[in-house]
Amino acid sequence: MADAGSWVVVGLDNGGTSNNATVLDASGRFLVDRMVETPSLVREGPEVAVGQLLLALDNVLELTGVPRPKVRAVGLDTPGPASADGVISSKGATNFVDPGWYGFDFRGALEARTGLPVIYNNDGNAAALYAHHAHFGPDSWQRSSVSAIVGTGLGGGVVEAGHVVKGAAGMAGELGHVHIPLHGLLEADQPPPGCNCGFAGDAESVASLTGIERNLLPYWLTRFPGHELAEIEPVGKAAKLLRGYGEKGDPLALRIFEQQAMAIGRLFTIAANFTDPDAYFLGGGVVEAAPHFREWFLEKVREHTLLREEQRRAASVALVEHLDMAGARGAALAALTRIVGR
């Protein structure tokens, strides 16, 4: 790589409420070690949102003291669904409800406004890329990994030889919509879980906040009559409180989170027989939980990830580092990789 001070790339992580930005120099060193956020204003439409990303870029450059001419490229990540080139779905998305977003070329618009190359990834892929490089360091280009990021939905990505696998239409690594075996995961009288995408029994229908709200919590409240979460309305509010109950060892919460861990373990088992990666990374709200609960959950995931003995010796199951910064950092890494030609 070039001398550290010769040039930089900027990573921009676009979210429903905030943009987070980071700067990565030519040697691969991040110049900020914390969140650098500005409002995203995506609900006000594309023109306003692109302007906010420019503000985020200028803000992080001012913070780091890097002059604009030193920026060689920009990495951008956004929630999906979007194409591999950063064109938002023609039907919009949860974060992109203004009709102006339908079929909007987000990457191209930012590139036109900055005059710089913009390299796009969805937010799950960007976080997966950062998890991979943070874990393997210099060996990243010889390693492979699969990441599952549990949030409102279930995102993630597949990385091979240090690069995100995007697929022909940009939809590779949509781990949340992989169907998983439900036998032994669900209780005998538990209804098959449905996903917002229209599938039944995919990983996201269990291992996501939406899965808790829509499928798991309503069922388990019937098994624990009188539980105080039943008094909280709407159920979505109760779902957001569940992690705190899990940290305190609440039996209902632990049953739900064990089902989520089983679902992720089965998802990783499928990955083991499909890509046989060097590492399986887990990210999401559980990473931000109390250490004892986080380790309990990760151990449950390991328990239900069925690997052959040879695979167990070769691979690891680990947490995504610096999850709140992983999107922007992964976006920056993608931009750096493009510039140096790896």
A few lines on this structure:
With 342 residues, this protein is an alpha/beta fold.
The overall strand count is: 10
- The CATH architecture of the largest domain can be given as 2-Layer Sandwich
Q: Report the helical percentage.
A: 25-40%
Instruction: Fill in the CATH topology of the largest domain.
Output: Nucleotidyltransferase, domain 5
Q: How many domains would you count in the coordinates?
A: 2
Radius of gyration: 20 Å
H/E topology pattern: EEEHEHEHEEEHHHEHHEH
What does this structure look like?
The protein has helices at residues 46-64, 106-114, 123-136, 209-223, 235-247, 251-272, 291-304, 309-314, 323-340, and strands at 8-14, 18-25, 37-39, 71-78, 118-122, 144-150, 154-160, 163-164, 279-284, 316-319. It is an alpha/beta fold and 342 residues long. The protein has 2 domains: 8-116, 2-Layer Sandwich (Nucleotidyltransferase, domain 5); 138-320, ATPase, nucleotide binding domain (Nucleotidyltransferase, domain 5, 2-Layer Sandwich), CATH 3.30.420. The strands form 2 sheets. The chain has a 5-stranded mixed β-sheet, sandwiched between helices. Helix 5 (235-247) packs across helix 6. The relative contact order is 0.15.
